[in-house]
Task: structure prediction
Amino acid sequence: VDTIDGLVEWLEAMPPHVIVVSDIQMAFLRSVGGFQGLRALLYILNAVSNRHFVVCSCHRKALQYMRRLGSLVNMEVVRQVIDLTPYGERDLQTLIGAKLEECGYTVRYDDLVQRSPFGVAPEIELRRAIGRFFLLLSDASDGNPGVALRLLTQCLTVGSEPRTLDAHIAPCLGTVTLDALSDDEMFTLVALRTQGSLDEPELVRVTNMSPSVVRNVVRNMVNRRLLVREGELVKVAIDQLPVVTRTLRRRHFLHFAG
Result:
């Protein structure tokens, strides 16, 4: 099969299947002429959707961007979108509690308690402290459980008793932003934050910067641990996602929500 219509005919001839297409944001680039792949993919999936059950996954910020493209990309062919809502503090507390129990560890939150001068019962103060901790963790991670688990590791130290960990408020739970980023670095970060991951030639097309500039920017940000490489692809380091997102928003490089 070497044509779009030929692929449609081949799929139509197959028995009904569940077709899962992961990361459809990889089918386009935010550049001139960068949407042919996405349009072709959506055309194929729409053409066979009455015979096959098609499920696609997409990076949230890429989907938000795609919805803003209007007639450039016809998103009306997507019949239903199931948005995976961010985890709140209770969701994270349940998830982390289950993970720690599975590993056989217990976390102590005693050091987080701020003693009240009004004689509040210790168990109430502890419950409030735990609630504040997970609220901060939820805010810092944007409700992303993978990010939250990475940030959690920076908030735990080995306890005095076997298989116990002590929780504390680490700087990663704050609201700091990145200072002294150049415009080239900002354009690179917003490209990666929008699409999840790109290789260097794709970054050249998306940012309209020269290959040498992109190469230097990526190398510098990898050395600073803002970016990581996965084969040929480059992406924002998962534990840096919150601070990168806050920085892009505050400097008005990232305009959509979520």
Remarks:
- The beta strands are 18-21, 53-56, 106-108, 156-158, 164-167, 198-199, 227-230, 233-236.
- The chain has ten helices and eight strands.
